[in-house]
Every structure is written in structure tokens, then in C-alpha cells.
Amino acid sequence: MSDELPVSVHKSQPVLIFPEKPTPKCSLYLSNIDNLDFLKYHYELLCVYRKSTPIEDLKPSLSKVLFHYYPLAGRVRNCADDEDRLEVDCNGKGALLVEGFMDFTVDEFLKDNTWLNTAWKDKLLFKVDAQSDIPPLVIQVTYLSCGGMLMCITIYHCMADGVGGSKFLHDWAYIHTDPNMDLPIPPVHNREMLKPRNPLQVPFDHPEFTDVTQDFDIPTYLQSQTLAPSCLTMTQSHIQHLKNSCEPSLECTTFEALASHVWRCYIKALSLPSSLIIKLFIPTIMKTNIEPNLPIGYYGNGFVLACVETTVKELVTAKLNHIVELIQNAKRRVRSNDYVRSVIDIIEEKKAQPVMSTTLVISDWRMLGFHELDFGEGKPLHMSQLASEAWCVFLPFIGDSNAAKVLVSIPKSIVHKFEYYMVNDFIQEMTS
Questions:
Q1: What are the pLDDT digits (tens) for 325-349?
Q2: What is the dihedral of CA 242, 245, 250, 256, to 10 degrees?
Q3: Domain 207-431 CATH superfamily
Q4: Record's family (predicted)?
Q5: CATH number of 9-191
């Protein structure tokens, strides 16, 4: 498929979908983790369906679910007493829903793997330019000439992590297919349980917030380049071979083996200075590590960043099992109530922010359930981010739960190099 899609014509201006009944008018506190700078953006989801659901049928079910998730019908704003913090004005102003039409078919859309392009955003997702009073939820449904549809959903990340976003969308689908049923697990809005302690206590070192003065800045380098998406499918056989290169001496998960391999190939492809200190951030769920545990219905950001730190030279020359061990140690380190509380307190005490200068973030979307989102006409044929971003994301391979898709943006001039390393380093691990 070419980089250009047919023009998507919006049939009407965006409509506001309000909660079906009156909801509380209040300010919702967002936690220190919700307020991290790198979460102050909308994350985007694209689902491709063979059969469409009429937009007039989606409106009432969205209205019903927004009654339960009323903060998503509010607006994100700066706190009056602290311009650096965000809160939610739960004012019921509504979520934005947009309808579009495209003279295109599902099969044309999915005929190869080059379906990620930042230029698509203007066509497939209505853009909201708002510096304040930000709508946290925007949805565009684009109907295709074949009877299929593209559903693009964007949620402001400070409101919900991937687990929380998936819960909201599945609750919407649940209400849509059975509007007379109550939600099985009501959402929990209260984020006060992640408030800092008094007095503050920071007994841990936090490498995710610690900067190192160096001569090279990866984000600056990437911003100077034309970026392109690379999306590779790793089959069950590929993944098992990676895991076998670590075992039996070191048992590891699919994520640990794959993340180790991708990080090494990514850094090799960038050809960075060998002495450069680099970091890998892994969002790690902490909902059951904190005491008391966060409730099942909690949909705010419930993760901390496990941080792996090494040098370029060590990473590109290491065996896979060594990198896996670094990742396992980093994940193990953050999985305690004391560490999570220390993260919350250091953000409060020092206004700490994750240092992104030499960092790759790998986020695992495989188990979030976005690929099972069914509004009554079947599950998606395809699910991904709408367009490539700087983060690396592991996506489910629909039809094979043992495979995975690896999506990462890298300079267009070295996409071939990254993909070469992904294949050839893989072969070396198999034969070494």
C-alpha cells in the first residue's frame, strides 16, 4: 500500500457525547504518576473491522458508559495552585465523536505491513488543538466502501494507562451489546491512594530520574532525522529460539527475551558512541505491589518504570542472556510497596521526571485485550497504534497468540540496518 490514503471526508463536524445522566461536578486529583511529563499526550489506537457498527448505535452506548466514566467526559486542566500539575474538571462537557467515510476497502488497507504513517492522523483521527481544557477522549469512526470500518480512539495518557484504557473500551463494548446490564466491575476514579507520604521518604536510588552528562542526546538526534516505522512479525519459532538461547541456565519470559533482542538491535542500528551510557525503560504494573493493592476497577496510571542501565559497548557485545538478566533485575527491583512509594515521594520532593536523553521505552500491548474489542459485529482484523511513535511497542499478532509484532520508529536511512540486525543477530543467537 502506498503512503497515501484516499481523502477521508468528514460527514459532519464532531459531536459531543454527554453522559446519559447527571454526573458529579468536581475536580479529580491526578496522581504524581499520572502527572509525569511523558504521559501528557494522547495515546492512539486503531482497530480495523470487517463489518461496521452504525454511528447512531454507538452514540447511546458511549453516552451510557460515560455516565460510569464521567471524568473522560470532562476536561484536563492545570491546577489553579500549581501550573505544573494537571487535574480533571469533571464538568460533563462530553467526549468528541467524529464520523468519516473513505472510498477504500478493508482488504486494501491491510494488504501489507506498511500501514503506519504519521500523515494518516489528519485523515483518520480528528485533531484537537487545545493547550488547556483538553478533551481526554476523542473517537473517529471512518466507514469504508466495502462495509467495514476503522475505529480510531485516543485517550489522554494522564487519565488512563493501557490497562485502564482497555477496561474503559471493553466496558463500552459490553454496554453496547447488552445495554440493560450493569458493569461487572465498576470503575474506580479515586487516585488519592497514590498520594505522597507525610513525611516524604526516598530510601531508594532512582536511575529513571537520574541524568548523566554526556555528549550525545538520542531524542535530539532522532528529531533531526526523518523517522519511519519498522514493524516486524516475530513468530512463535523466532521467540522460542530466543528463549532457548537463555535457557536452561536462565528462564525468561517472551517479553524479556524479545525486549533484550530488540534493544540490542536498535542500539546497534543507531551506531552510537561505544562509551555512551544508555537506558531502557519498561513500564511495569505495580497495582498489586503497592499496599493496599489498587482496586481491580482502578483505571489510572498504575505502573512504574523499571530502568536498565548499561553502555553501548556492553549491550551490543553481550549475549542475550546477560541482557535478559539485566531486565529481570530491573523489574524485580521495582516490585515492592516501598519502591513504588519512593517513586511517588521523589516526584513530589524533587519534581523529578524520567530522563529520556539516552532511553528507549518498550511497552507491551500484547495482553491488554485491544485486539478483542467487539461491538457486536466481530473482533478487529487488525489492531495497532494509529501511527509510529518514538516508543517501541509489542503488539499482538491476531490469529496467533504465541507470535508478536514489534513496532518501533527509527531514522528512515537505517531501517534496513535495524531489520538486518533483527534477523542476523537472531540467527547468531540460534547458532552460538
A1: 999 999 999 999 999 999 999 999 9
A2: -20
A3: Chloramphenicol acetyltransferase-like domain (3.30.559.10)
A4: Belongs to the plant acyltransferase family.
A5: 3.30.559.10
